[in-house]
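Researcher: Here's a chain I'd like modeled. Treat it as a single chain, no partners, no ligands.
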Amino acid sequence: MTVLNFVPLSPKRSFIPLSTEQKIVTMFGLLFLILFAPGVSEFLCTSSDLEMSYTFCDSTPHAFTFHLTPCSTMNKSVWKAALTWIPRSDIQFLKIVFHVWYDDAKALLWKELLCSGADDEYSVCGTLKGETLVAAFDIKGSRIKFPKGNYSVVVQGFSDDSENNMLICLNFTMIVKQDAF
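Model: Modeled as a single isolated chain. Structure tokens:
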């Protein structure tokens, strides 16, 4: 948890005027706090060709971490992903919805039923509320040659087929700095 320490102003001065340079530094510090305070945004990685981070797009805090290696889109056919999550409800049914935007244009909508409650093949299925889910898996979509640009990927997990009961929502930001081809 981030704790801020405020120093009281001198009783002789109730207002301290700031120069333009001090205001810029103060605003940068505030922006840095907003972007990188725990629970607000999680930085995944940065390299010469890629930057990735994620935030939660629903209003509820989650016990969730996600890691991705390698941090590159150049000559990589598979990314290794690892996640740790403590769900707030049992996972008997899980539908994942991906919304992908490329430079602010909708590029993909993909829905996948991971858990139906019968003969499920994924380890996440059957996880009970409060249980720690630890999973490692490959993301083979990285064999796609990503053009340079800004990508936004919203991943939503629902506990029903009608997409009314959201379990989790993540907003991934991916900035590809150079073309892979």
